[in-house]
Design a protein that fits this description.
- The complex is a heterodimer of chains A (363) and B (351).
- By secondary structure, chain A is of the alpha/beta class.
- Chain A has 2 domains: 210 residues, 3-Layer(aba) Sandwich (Rossmann fold), CATH 3.40.50.300; 112 residues, Hypothetical Protein Yjia, Chain: A,domain 2.
- Chain A is built from 11 helices and 14 strands.
- In chain A, a hairpin with a 2-residue loop joins strand 12 and strand 13.
- Chain B has 351 residues and is mostly beta strands.
- Helix content of chain B is 0%, strand content 50%.
- Chain B contains no helices and 32 strands.
- The mean pLDDT of chain B is 92.
- Classes of the chains: A alpha/beta (363), B mainly beta (351).
- At the A-B interface, helix 2 and helix 4 of A face strand 17 of B.
Chain lengths: 363, 351
Amino acid sequence: MPPTTTRTTPDALDAPDEQRDTRVPVTVLTGFLGSGKTTLLNRILTENHGLRIAVIENEFGEVGIDDALVVDAEEEIFEMNNGCICCTVRGDLIRILGALMRRRESFDRILIETTGLADPAPVAQTFFMDDEIAAQLRLDAIVTVADAAHILEHLDEVKPAGVENEAIEQVAFADRIVLNKTDLVDQDRLATVIWRLRSINALADILPARRADIALAEVLDVHAFDLDRVLQTDPAFLTETEHQHDASVTSVGIDLPGELDQRKLDTWLGTLLRTRGVDIFRSKGIVALAGSDRQYVFQGVHMLLEAENGREWRADETRGNRLVFIGRNLDRAELNDSFAACLAPVRGRAKKAGQRAVAGASA
Amino acid sequence: MSGNSTLTTGAGSAIGWTQQVDDAPVAITTADDLIAVAGAGGTAWVLDARDGNPVATMTLPGGLLAADFSADGAHLALTGPNGHALWRRSDRRTLIFETGAWSNAARWSGGRGAAAAYEPRLAVASGRRALIVDAEGTLLWRTDPCPSTVTDLRWLRAGRRLALAAYGGVYCHERHSGAPVAEYRYLGSHLRLAVDPAEKWLCSGNQDASIHIWRIRDAADLTMSGYPDKIARLVFDDTGRYLASDGSPDITLWDFSGKGPEGTRPKMLRAHETVTALAWRPGPDAILASSGDEGRLAVWRAASGRPGTRQRPAVEYEHDEPVTALAWSGPNLLVSAERGGTIRARPHPAR
């Protein structure tokens, strides 16, 4: 074996994961050139956090950390032969991640740096679509670096018909938005930028920074795609729509008490993602099913959806449903109304509620 | 590498042994009395097939992905994410080509007998192109770029035609033809190529969990789908009757006798959680070795069992670690590698 090309430093950022999931975490770092993405990447690679990080780099030659394991990648987007236009994956990542995993003892986590023009969807879908990768690697979070002084221009840039605005997509897909260079804008401008980012993506945490000076734990240990952490924190629901500058990509939140008929929910969600999956970038939800003591959680990227039973509802909490969709041209009222039609008949709910009250009283 | 290998006596003329290398093996290639083991970290070892003792070692910076010995064992090609390397047996010289291009595979042209009349040429996948070089590594010609990184390649017509697998299909080139002279198109990412010895069928294993098959003569094609996972391993036996593929957990065996597999059911072989390697024993008796990441190595008789039913292996070996690579050194020695670097050669009886 040649000399190892990764770094080990003391003071580990996080203790060994005690959870059963031993898959290698992967962070996807997006952002336009000049946003400060490289500054953040260099911080991640040079700070004393004790993690050995393998970097897959799309923007050639930007990172030159001598002792880091860096692999260059050229974006290769593959359409699958199943007729679903959402099912695009990154062939280059499948290849590189596969090769990296054959030497998995030489690093602790992987960071994928994408170009400012890359569509995050095929990157995320690669982790759902390729079983070999899904078995060994865990997508931890999509982190987008945005330049507070210029992000609005990027978001407002008018593209020719059929061409995506990559800045909007990168904000829409993000689990964390590092809002960089906040010292270059005044407070009013900053508030406008934050409001705009929030209106596109109500799920992401926005982390203000000057020179990408955020705590690395905030972007390296997010577990954004873990079903047991879906909507762990309250998303910033937006109800106000009249001020929206550009409503084409927005977040729609649904917050509805009550219990659902699972069959109706399955049909609703299936139809929604089948017919609108192209426009829905991310979706997450925790819902209550009639007849089940457990939360039902789901999350998706375009048409690809993962769902499972989550933890048990606690006796002291109100059973209800919280969902968030981030997408293009979403009709808030229509989504809310059609979802409400999935509620189970009240008689069934009253009976279940009674049973729970008894169980709670005897506990 | 440990100083001496451990020898164990086995059945038949071949002798078993174990050897330890300091890397995670990703590929084994054999020819004549040599065995080469390629490691993920970039080091390769050439071992003597008779006792496992090291003959040579070399390193390609950036890691290794594949290895191929020329049929006579005189030349070894190694490929990796950062380029390729050539080793020559006569003077044990290694030439390193750090091209910076991802090289998924390399294949020597020619074989024994009539085909050996041609000077061996090496086709190396190099990013989106294939480079065709002589045994000195000198570039003879190169193909135009494919739509994606070249994933696999095969020589046809005794080294006169080269087939490349990439996104969107299989692209065939003839000598000094940068542009393909024939294309077998099918939407999707083609990961692995297999061609039967009679060169009647061209088969690709795909990312979308299917095998695509073309009749080479007229490009008539069919798709075998319904696999649970992508097909990354695909290999014909020496007779050309059986095509073995992964698509975990089952290995499927398609029977190409008669008019081919269209409308037939495959034989299903299950011994692994995830199949890591498939290797047909050289010769006419259609014996397949397979390995898995659970640490099992299995040997199967393709003629046994019925289509549509799950078959049990003829022989099984258990290991504590995932078995990552597999090859036959002649018909009587089965060589396997484990992730921790243990190389085992096991004698296998003639029948």
